[in-house]
Amino acid sequence: MTDGKAGAAPLRLGVAGLGTIGLAVARRVDAGEAGDMIVSAVSARDEAKAQGNISKFRHIPEIVPIDDIGRHCDVVLETAPKAVFDGLAASAIENGCIFIPLSVGALLDRPLLVDQARATGARIMVPTGAIIGLDAVKAAAQGPVSSVKLETRKPPRGLKGAPHIGATGVDLDAVTEPLKVFSGTAREAAKGFPANVNVGAALGLAGIGPDRTTVEIWADPTVKHNTHKVTVEAEASNFTMTIQNVPSEENPATGKITALSALATLQRLTAPLIVGT
What we know:
single chain; 277 residues; Rossmann fold; Dihydrodipicolinate Reductase, domain 2; 2 domains; five-stranded mixed beta sheet; 30% helix; globular
């Protein structure tokens, strides 16, 4: 891996999953928007489609198996289905890569990944994603914290496919007014909504842990944006933050800002000036 000094080789990025988010980030990195970094490898279920998507890149990356991507890069960005998370994470960490997962909830059940990263020299970096103010939450958590709460409101279609919705039998098509569909811990939210509320997992990791962080999820037909409200009560500071994210046209469960957050995280790796924690 490059040490970031002048004259060193560019950082090699592997993008695991070339869907809406992965492809958007890969294109912008290839265009030079992440500084001295190139896309060296990608993984995708549909290799023929992936080949077409990368055919006009300035630097054509290799298409490699997802559980082998760590051998081809210094940084691995995970934008893949959760079903392949274990093999992907193992490849990145065993090869000492910087691992940037967007499926943040998957980390909550895999604490050994941190120990493995420590042993191999790898690093796990969780991007801010669709939420706001994780730097403030981290700072407050350096002292006593009474509570951290997340209230998420999404248009009903943005919650479709969530295991918790299927288990409770909520008919999202029939929701005509705001309906609270979940109340519990961030760990429980990550299990019930693995593709919908990764913000809760990120909030738990940044602050007082996933078992003390509380989450409410609302199916709300009155909102057009995925809305997240964070409330923190701590000895050093009490604050409330709200963000309204425009849903992606391709995947309404994910906000457009998610890809931009991933790009910003990659830029930190090469930037001569870093702002915020």
